[in-house]
Amino acid sequence: MTQTKPNVLFITVDALRADRCSVYGYGRPTTPNLERLAQRALVCDHAYSSAAFTQGSFPTIMTSSSPLAHGGFDNGAVGRPPTVFQAFAESGYDVKLLSTFKWVTRYFGYGEGAEHEEHLYSPKGLMGTAVNRTKSTISLYKKNAISEVEMVEHVSPVFEGLFDNIEDFCQKRIQNDGKYKAILSGTNVMQDGFDFGKIAKVTAAHRGEFRANPTAYVKKYFKKMPEAHEWIAADWRYCRKPSRLVQEIGNRLIDLILGCIDKKAVILRKSRIKQFVDGSALADHVINTITGARTDRPFFIWTHFIDTHVPYLPGSGKNWWRKAPDLLAQVGHDRNLDLSVAPFKRPQKPEHVPVWSCLYDAAVRYVDEQIGRILDTLEATGLRDNTLVVFLSDHGEELGEHGNFSHYFTLYRHNTWVPMIFAPPSSAAGRRLPGMASLADAAPTMAGYCGVKAPAGWDGLDLSGMISGPRTHLVQESFYGGNCLFDKRPLYMAARSTDFSMIWKEYVDPDDRLSPPGPQLYDLRQDPLELANIYSPDHPQAEILERLIMQRMAEMPEIGADRVRANFPHLGGS
Question: Quick check: helix, strand or coil at residue 1?
């Protein structure tokens, strides 16, 4: 049987800001392969995420719905319109999820329709999802702002789901022991050397302890908000295979001795094991998946590169630091920069900030190299002429512009302006799409190019046939991390056009120690990094953008009319 619909290769990248991509005009050659892709592609010049972090962005990407629609982003795709995976599966596609990040899996409603799903991440990350989905609730309980009954009612399904997910993950990993060694060998997923049977038993014990007394369990394990390697994972340290325990003892002795000679070398040695799947190994796996795909049905393959997420470790596998100087040089930076700055969540000293920024550029170039390898495979196999290639980022990244690093939920342009490129299976010349595009447009546009019916409930637009920009304005929405407690937490919103942006908060979240109070208005033509707040109530753009925010708030069923009026009395509150 000959397939008639094009294949789809859908590649997303974590924390990739458009203004650091040469395909979007950045002065350093960070993305030459994306420039090659753009020659035959629709490039959205002003594409934005609706939230500034992965958990809030992927419901928009995969279900074409706003982050705070359908009750918020806590449960991923659960309770939302059908995912893009489901839509393409129902149209006859062989859907494969090569999931490198815990948020986009069947554990959060993304698996329906996928005939093949791989979990290419550490089980420790699953605990991070449960913390994110309960931290605001637990924090309010500890402040006596909500009752014990309310707290337990909220955390119980999250924790029970976590126990189920960990046990399922362990079962799948036991069944596929050894299958992913080549892909994951340079990451802590394999380096941990877990005995997944033992992990399942420890998790079952935690389930029993929680059920016996939920409140006591929360008080014991959430005295402070745990990191992913804490909480249940703290009890996994001895759930390792004996050979791994011996290896760990040896590594610590070497680090101790080396530390007396060269402290920077110790830092690099400890960081040789990457937290996430390495880009080169993932590209190898994508290439193998493409070349091994069945020929009687079109494939839909999705995966997510994470090398542009902190820590920025540009280069392949355990020896990333050997390749990093070359990558720095390729983008015009000093190849002799101090690489020991890299393996941290943020710069440790003020003088590290410029190095941090350079390493981010090198990480972007590293991901671009992997994209180039995949494109080469499509061209060498003849598949490029029958494959829609889609490339986008889930959100941007902060490199110190507003006092923070990585991405912490604020809706500045550098945190939300993202690359979004659609390269159809044709030889047509590439074109740029002006106007405002949203990540909500990704799924409808893929469907439009492939003749797939868009499910009811998708909010985005099909950009495939558009010549001019689809919108003049775009509204963004979020909470400052944590979970979606609409009645207890301040909304963080923004409205923007190509020339102006407004960042608006109900009030400053207690966890947000950097955002200023009050509205912020920026002229992007003069101030693309949004550093000079020009807001005044009588500014011509202020009412336009505030009214868009007000209208979006009024659409949320969790936000009553009284609350809308209280926030916008000068606009009539409706």
Answer: coil
